[in-house]
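User: Run a structure prediction on this.
Assistant: Running it now.
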Amino acid sequence: MTLAYWCVLAAILLPYAFTGFAKFQGGFGPRQNHNPREFLDTLEGARKRAHWAQQNSFEITPAFAAAVIIAHLAQTSPQPTIDGIAIAFVLSRFMYGVCYIADWASARSLVWFFGIGCIIALFIGTSA
């Protein structure tokens, strides 16, 4: 498996880190699992923003996975380039979550656009 494929797995798992922050920060935890969606809707501040970062991460992951698969199949770029773009995307998603939780709205938007740029770069490639 290529490094880019491993990045897809990382992107799939990353939202759960944000969920963990939302659910377990402040002493709450497994006892809130009876109605987790209701519980998450009651959160405030950084924990609420962590929940929103988790939701956005789940929304963007399919596009990233498709871009990686298409880049591999179409050979849009050399493999090291595809791997590098995939790593950049995963790092951008981590930073997106950090910016969201910290309430750095402008930085969050910049990081989001960078991540979308990575997806576009995977589709377009460097050999076109």
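The chain has a mean pLDDT of 90.
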